[in-house]
Amino acid sequence: MAEELNVRRLLCPLPVIRTQNKINTMATNEELLVVGTDPGMLNDIPTWCRINGHQVLDTQSQAGEYHVRIRVQHSE
After folding, report:
1. For residue 21, what are the CA distances in angstroms to 11, 29, 50, 63, 74?
2. In order of start, what are the domains of the chain with their CATH numbers?
3. Which of 27, 41, 49, 64 lies at a C-alpha separation of 20 to 30 Å from 12?
4. Rg (CA), the chain
């Protein structure tokens, strides 16, 4: 079961910052579902994940909300 991070009504760069802060508290292979209303997060969060080595499992857009599901991958 993925943890959920609510970043609704936050605009760039806050969804990415909140995602980074949450991932820093999580263990490798845990999943995080980020739910927001800023369409830019569908590009910004996957880009941040690629730079930092985390795996984006899925992105979705539904009813004015955007979801990004991430598997945490901390380098040892």
Report:
1. 16, 16, 16, 26, 13
2. 3-71 (3.30.110.40)
3. 27
4. 11
pLDDT at 46 over 80: yes
Residue 49 burial (CB < 10 Å; 0-12/13-18/19+)? buried
pLDDT beyond 80 at 76: no
In the chain, % of residues over pLDDT 90: 95
- The tally of CA atoms less than 13 A away on the side-chain side of residue 34 is 34
For the chain, what is the largest distance between any 2 Cα atoms, rounded to a whole number of angstroms? Answer: 39
Burial class (CB in 10 A: 0-12, 13-18, 19+), 1: exposed
